[in-house]
């Protein structure tokens, strides 16, 4: 199964680039920028990655990204990720980034955009990995701040494939960001949002109704509302599911209890993604492999997951056609 899953042309639709910061690079960047880390070794960092919930992860996630200061840092971060993803058979990545988390540390938007943009062009040229860019708003910060960042991003509106919504979910419903997302819609920018990860199924409905998102990040708690499940199925709303993330953040107790088989049985449009690969135990391939071990899925099922991701990715139609053709040419037998 490993070789088969490795060969599948996989698209990663749910990836926080700041969450791809491996401890080794964290140390390198800390040294380069003369920043003192609260750790003395890579092992110590890894030992700290024991999370009780989303917030306990976010605390370390925001702390870790403080080593990113220059455009070169953002470039190195993204290239490091692109190389690993490429080695896993990833052909397309939709990179989410959190501009507010960097602005709050005095790192200007143009620094972030320049570094990420350079890495994206280089990955396309040197690795043949295409990418999209999703500017995510932090839902635990004021909506006015998000709106301000969206306006500040005017020189980059053309480069944004979507805006998103992430960070601490509970108590920060999508409705809080109605105006921000209406503005993005008026600008012609597609919209996605995390919903139903830790938060209730009602947040998924809100994201669809009030933010008019075209897909839901996570969405696993939709199963608590059968009417919503039927809507997601009928409207073919993609869910970007991240099984290893859900285990590490204790959304589910064990991978064997993950709702993916139930979501599949419900006929939903599912994709498998890594979320924050440096923090949650691996990239897209590791997430596919975890599913293979836990659910005993057929090769056809994995092909369907990979096909779903290619079908709903923000991608040029010619490239989509070519990648779908590659996917369909993978033999089902050894
Ligand atoms: N959930 C919400 N916000 C995030 C995550 C996540 O898994 N990763 C980075 N920001
Ligand atoms: Zn996420």
Structural commentary:
It is built from 17 helices and eight strands. With 334 residues, it is an alpha/beta fold. It has one domain (2-328): Metal-dependent hydrolases (TIM Barrel, Alpha-Beta Barrel), CATH 3.20.20.140. β6, α11 (226-234) and β7 (238-241) form a beta-alpha-beta unit. The mean pLDDT is 97. Bound molecules: hypoxanthine and zinc ion. Zinc ion is lined by residues 14, 16, 166, 194, 217, 275.
Summed up, what is this model?
The chain is α/β, with parallel strands linked by helices and 334 residues long.
- Characterize the main sheet: 4 strands, parallel
Number of strands: 8
CATH superfamily: Metal-dependent hydrolases
Give the helix level as a range of percent: 40-55%
Mean pLDDT, rounded to whole units? 97
Q: For the CA atoms, what is the radius of gyration?
A: 19 Å
Classified by CATH, the class is Alpha Beta
User: How far is the N terminus from the C terminus?
Assistant: 10 Å
Write the element-wise H/E pattern from the N-terminal end onward.
HEHHHHEHHEHEHEHEHEHHEHHHH
Shape: globular
Secondary-structure class:
alpha/beta
CATH structural architecture: Alpha-Beta Barrel
Secondary-structure topology with pairs:
Blueprint: H1 2-7, E1 10-16, H2 23-32, H3 42-48, H4 54-64, H5 71-87, E2 90-97, H6 99-103, H7 109-127, E3 130-138, H8 143-152, E4 162-166, H9 178-186, E5 192-195, H10 201-210, E6 215-218, H11 226-234, E7 238-241, H12 243-248, H13 260-265, E8 269-272, H14 277-280, H15 284-295, H16 299-312, H17 317-328
Helix pairs in contact: 5-7, 8-9, 16-17
Bound molecules: hypoxanthine (HPA) and zinc ion.
Hypoxanthine (HPA) binds at residues 16, 19, 54, 61, 166-167, 194, 197, 245, 275-276.
């Amino acid at each position: 199964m490993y070789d088969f899953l490795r060969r599948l042309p996989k698209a990663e639709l749910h990836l926080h680039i700041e969450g791809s910061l491996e401890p080794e690079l964290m140390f390198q960047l800390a040294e380069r920028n003369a920043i003192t880390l609260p750790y003395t070794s890579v092992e110590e960092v890894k030992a700290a990655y024991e999370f009780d919930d989303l917030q306990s992860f976010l605390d370390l996630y925001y702390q870790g990204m403080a080593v990113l200061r220059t455009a070169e840092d953002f470039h190195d971060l993204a290239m490091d990720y692109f190389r690993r993803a490429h080695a896993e058979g990833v052909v397309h990545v939709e990179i989410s980034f959190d501009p507010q988390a960097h602005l709050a540390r005095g790192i200007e938007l143009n620094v972030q955009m320049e570094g990420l943009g350079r890495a994206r062009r280089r990955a396309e040229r040197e690795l043949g990995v295409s990418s999209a860019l999703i500017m995510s708003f932090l839902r635990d910060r004021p909506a006015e701040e998000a709106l301000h960042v969206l306006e500040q991003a005017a020189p980059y509106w053309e480069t944004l494939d979507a805006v998103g919504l992430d960070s601490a979910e509970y108590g920060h419903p999508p409705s809080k960001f109605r105006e921000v997302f209406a503005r993005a819609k008026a600008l012609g920018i597609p919209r996605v949002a995390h919903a139903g990860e830790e938060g209730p199924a009602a947040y998924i409905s809100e994201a669809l109704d009030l933010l008019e998102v075209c897909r839901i990040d996570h969405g696993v708690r939709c199963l608590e509302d059968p009417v919503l499940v039927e809507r997601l199925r009928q409207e073919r709303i993609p869910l970007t599911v991240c099984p290893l993330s859900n285990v590490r953040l204790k959304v589910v107790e064990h991978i064997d209890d993950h709702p993916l088989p139930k979501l599949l049985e419900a006929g939903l449009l599912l994709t498998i993604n890594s979320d924050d690969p440096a923090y949650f135990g691996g990239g897209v391939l590791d997430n596919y492999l975890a599913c293979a071990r836990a659910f005993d899925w057929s090769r056809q099922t994995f092909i369907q997951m990979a096909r779903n991701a290619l079908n709903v990715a923000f991608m040029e139609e010619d490239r989509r056609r070519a990648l779908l053709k590659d996917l369909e040419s993978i033999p089902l037998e050894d």
